[in-house]
Amino acid sequence: MNAFRFAIYASLVLSVSVAQETAKPTEPEYNRIAFYLDGQGSLVQLERQQVNTQTKVKAFGFAGAKSSARFNGAKSPVRFKADDKIQFVIRLDSQGEDPTTLINLDVLTPTKTTREIVLATAGAMGLHGESNKGTTTLSINCAKYGEHSFRFVPATKLPPGEYVVTSKGSQEGFLFGID
User: Fold this and answer.
1) What is d(CA 118, CA 81) in angstroms, rounded to the nearest whole number?
2) Which pTM was predicted?
3) Diameter over CA atoms, the chain
4) If you compute the radius of gyration of the chain from its CA atoms, what whole number of angstroms results?
5) Is 42 helix (H, G, I), strand (E, B) or coil?
6) pLDDT tens, 24-40?
7) What's the mean pLDDT in 115-138?
8) Is 52 helix (H, G, I), strand (E, B) or coil?
9) Dihedral angle at the C-alpha atoms of 159, 30, 103, 156, nearest 10 degrees?
């Protein structure tokens, strides 16, 4: 009878250790690709677009200029409700750096055909130029997620609008909207 109890105990220990092995969170396969993390722990793709930077000059620069990062389309097809728990996962090269310096969550300004972030403006003949870097960036809270990734959430509730997640070293944006 002792051998029987030992066999049951051994199989229970083995099944618990296997369950713990499979309970690891699902992580992105590649670096610098952001995903929405749903309530069941699944990664959901966000709208993915190249960052298009554009500089518009007025009257050959005599009337000023504006530099912006633009994304096609007035609204993202990926939509969340204002009451949803918004959280994301991104895999990054460096686990030793502060992820808040590597990840940006920005508010986009929609137009009829695009969404954009104004990066810099310049006055007449290039005078009184100023960088708008950081004016659209929202604070995020980050924590390690799995072995190679970070989970991040907005520090405050996001109001309805259009948003983009970018990471240092990437030329892509991961877009979504809040209704």
Assistant:
1) 26
2) 0.78
3) 94
4) 22
5) coil
6) 788 999 999 999 999 89
7) 68
8) strand
9) 30
